[in-house]
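Translate sequence into structure tokens.
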Amino acid sequence: MRRSAAPSQLATSLGLKRKTKSDDEEEDRSSKTKIMASSSDWAKLRENLKKSKNKAHDNYDASNFISPFRKPLANVNDNQDTSKSKTETKTLICVSSSHEDFIKNLTSRPFKIPIPNYQSSSSYKSLGTRRQGARQPLFDPEEENAVILYSPPELSAQEMLKVDQNKLPVHVVVDPMVGRVLRPHQREGVKFMFDCVTGVQIPDNYGCIMADEMGLGKTLQCITLTWTLLKQGSDCKPIIDKAIIVTPSSLVKNWYNEINKWLQKKCNPLAIDGGGKEEIENKLKLFMFQQGRRIMNPVLIISYETFRAHSAILTKSPIGLVICDEGHRLKNSENQTYTALNALKTQRRILLSGTPIQNDLLEYFSLVHFVNGGILGTAAEFRKRFEIPIIRGRDSSASPAEQQLGNEKLNELASVVNKCIIRRTQALLTKYLPIKIEQVVVCRLTPLQIELYKMFCKSNNIDELGAKDESDLKLSNSTLSAITQMKKLCNHPELIYDKCVKKEKGFENALKLFPSNFDIRNIQCELSGKMAVLDYLLAAIKANTTDKVVLVSNYTQTLDMFAKLCVLRRYNYVRLDGSMTIKKRGKIVEQFNDPCSSDFIFMLSSKAGGCGLNLIGANRLVMFDPDWNSANDDQAMARVWRDGQKKQCFVSDFIKFRI
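Result follows.
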């Protein structure tokens, strides 16, 4: 440590005296010439300063600053025993050297890629490098019960030498996570759809129609196909990057739950089930702008109404796959929904419908044209080539030649469309589901209903329906209106009470037929044959079983009467109709299907929720009134007897007794 001399020590060594006050006064009195010193005096002064510093440094002793309570550090060599021999010293050095070498050997090993059964050809592989050799499928095709959707062609040894190993196709195998739960008919359905969307069934066409009857698992088959296309392909890369599922609003939440259930939350779908316009648009834009190998939301679930309202955003960029659930909504090729969906930039289109043919062949043409446009020509060409000969051949007055031509055209049409349509019936479910008992319950009309019915039929309103001078449109509307009033009357006289009060056509004098104690605020089951039978049935089920019941009607007024009956009998119930939001529909379905739920009755509007809903929480269903289209009744009846049902099912169809 260096020690600096104090100013007083420097002054003493230089022979300088400390100035006093008197000296300062004398200096003040001296002349100004003494202020400026000569350069030689300054040089001498600097030399004296240097000498004094060196002298102070020579007199410095560090031992004066050592603490008496601690010892100074010493070299390691000083602690060693000097009496050790040179041989012992060399031995210690060798042991230390071998230990260091061993540690360096452990820490300098190269990093190994954590791939099971992987053997590197080089000891200096880095993380993320590709494995050398032939390309491999994502899942093992040799595994037991593996669902193989594509098998590459077998090549001989000579052909293998000529082919580029980096371009060889590989097997496409369904993820065992979902493959193990597929039934035989579902495996066949997934394979058929995969062949269609990859252009195997019909070259240069990539669409198909899954027309299995209700309850055969169309949803699970489509989820399996979508997950496979998103993750793999014969070229060792995914076939699609995004998919859109368009469905009725009541099924948006159901699709979301089914995807999470079967894929074990490995896929993160985006369900548009409500929100403001700006919020929905932001979500859709975010979905459409997603790119790359890792997309956060690869599947979009959206209702037909929301899709139609925001089609401008969804048609801007290409989409890998579109699935239209309950696709019979697209039977009219001129409506806005059909036009909006047809504008999507995608070739792979799948249409799901348990009832693809409902009215005529032209509706059937619209469905086929949507998935594979052009295979049946234009609508005019289809009508001339197929529809007219087939309809004429089935006419009762058709000649043998017309019948033969009609059969030939029907077989020709079937040979074309069967390449892109697959349909299986509910007979397959008898192997897996409990027994289903269908009951046709004939209900006698009450005296009040008979009198009102006869009065309406004898009124001038019915006579006007048969007039020949009315236009076809007016005649059709009047006829349908009259039939609707008769259907409501058969359900319950309460449904036409307001028309009796207003004395509308056909009900001018009907109000006097109602009993004096009639109160529209309270349900009176004894005034309706159907309602009385329903009241007996529900009471017997509630008293003797733990079953749940689904009540289906086409009219919300009838659902209101059901609600009055449930309040009167203190039955817990939930209701689904067109006025309910998408989010609330999904919640009440989950609530009703919960085994711990106390809900006894599920009231369902066939128009709002008759298609696609999964109501396996109930095992009894009552069709209170028929629909104009029998296909809608078939859809509604399939809500309880489907995959997942554990109890014996009873389907009751209420009809009125003929007068």
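Note: The first strand starts at residue 148 and ends at 150.
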